[in-house]
Design goal:
Blueprint: E1 15-17, E2 20-22, E3 27-28, E4 33-36, E5 41-44, E6 49-50, E7 55-65, E8 70-71, E9 76-83, E10 88-89, E11 94-96, E12 105-106, E13 111-112, H1 129-132, H2 166-180
Parallel strand pairs: 1-4, 2-5, 3-6, 4-7, 5-7, 6-8, 7-9, 8-10, 9-11, 10-12, 11-13
Length: 183
């Protein structure tokens, strides 16, 4: 018995709402949502590549994805953002009102532009994050957490923010597991 090749779920594999301009040579995977609020717009340039399940929502301005920029699967871009030429945004990254300069690489799982959370250097109460961690890890065979180096400075627009995300989540999980494993 021979099976027929898989068929797409629908003929429109991504959703476009509002003032959205997509260059014919841009690549957009299925499940992508491109939504521009009134008086806002989204511009996707030639060679840009947007991964499966990404959501781009412009409000109060324009979101521009420049030539050859790559947005990984599950990326969320909100507000007024410019993603520079040849920039690479890792999977499951959130970018809020922050410009990404040309050729910048953002690690997967990062959070860019959310000023309501602390940065790598501080915990919510203002003390260094490493001081908030337990002195002995849950498993004594594990190496103790080391401080995460700050990203290299990049000459960029004034709205660029430090990368937080993976380091913050890792350190918070270590604190939670240390608390939950106590007798």
């Amino acid at each position: 018995m021979q099976l027929s090749p898989p068929q797409p779920v629908s003929t429109s594999h991504f959703c476009v709402i509002g003032d959205v301009t997509i260059h014919p040579h841009a690549k957009i995977a299925s499940g992508v949502i491109l939504q521009a609020a009134p008086q806002s717009k989204i511009v996707i340039a030639s060679g840009a590549c947007i991964g499966i399940g990404a959501v781009i929502q412009a409000f109060e301005g324009t979101i521009t994805v420049d030539s050859n920029a790559v947005l990984g699967a599950g990326v969320l871009v909100l507000g007024q953002v410019t993603i520079g030429m040849n920039a690479c945004i890792g999977d499951c990254t959130t970018i809020i009102n922050t410009d990404i300069v040309a050729q910048q690489v953002i690690p997967e799982g990062s959070l860019m532009g959310d000023s309501s959370r602390s940065t790598l250097d501080e915990s919510p109460n203002g003390s260094p994050l490493n001081d908030a961690l337990p002195s002995n890890p849950v498993n004594p065979d594990w190496p103790s957490p080391s401080p995460i180096p700050s990203p290299a400075p990049v000459s960029s627009p004034q709205r660029q923010s430090p990368v937080i995300g993976r380091a913050y989540v890792t350190q918070m999980l270590q604190v939670l597991f240390a608390r939950n494993s106590s007798p």
